[in-house]
Amino acid sequence: MTPAHTKYEDKLISTISHKLRTPLNSILGFSELLLDQAFGHLNEKQRHYLNNINKSGEALLALLNDLIDLMNVKWGDIQVQYSAFPLNNAIGNAVQSIQQFADLKNISLEIQSDPRIETIKADEPKIEKILHYLLSNAVKFTPSGGQVKITTKYLDRPPSRLSSSGFQNFVEVSVTDTGIGIQPNDQEKIFSEFYQVNSTQSQEFEGTGLGLSVARDLITMHHGDIWVESEEGKGSRFIFTIPLPD
Ligand code: ADP
Q1: pLDDT, mean of residues 112-131
Q2: Of all protein residues, whose CA lies closest to atom 2 belonging to ligand 1?
Q3: pTM for this structure?
């Protein structure tokens, strides 16, 4: 990560954030108004093309938001803002953000929380963002009728990958799906920026290849770790651990 950001990079982030997002929001807002037939009845063709405008606008907005997250993580001088919050609230909010998408695909969402974890000390919006990225991938890459499970676990000793971290207690969060899975050769690469598995199966999914890279950076800022265990055709389990400071 580049520690210092320059005026040029600041300007780029702010231009992309405001100058592109504002007209895009108007494309989205007005196409929704028209689709709601607020200004008159639409014939089938008009509805079809308006729907295309609206869906493309949404895809563009998702891409912009991912790009802004990436630029902020790479260039911005964002820092971890620690506060104590109930981990289950962050999980609940992240679940809510993808619930509609899961319902559309008839995917069940289950939460299994370790009762030993109530509040944790971390950066709440960043933890929510990480969970959102993992959950939206889990739903995206799981066929209709599948299952997604979120599990939390309290660890009273460091996981082996973080044994020299100097912290004692950790929380482990995993997101498990019954989706298409990831072959061993791709399991590390998917955490690189813009990397998407080049299979005919995953090409049909929209995405930017940025979510996991941003998630890993946000977890690293918390002195934590993230990895995946997966079997092609069976499903994936994304696991992250972060230390629990006193
Ligand atoms: P995006 O989802 O926008 O493509 P990500 O960085 O979040 O970007 O993920 C990178 C790639 O990793 C995805 O394109 C996909 O190929 C693979 N991937 C991520 N999560 C899963 C999952 N739960 N199941 C199968 N493949 C996944």
Answers
A1: 95
A2: 207
A3: 0.86
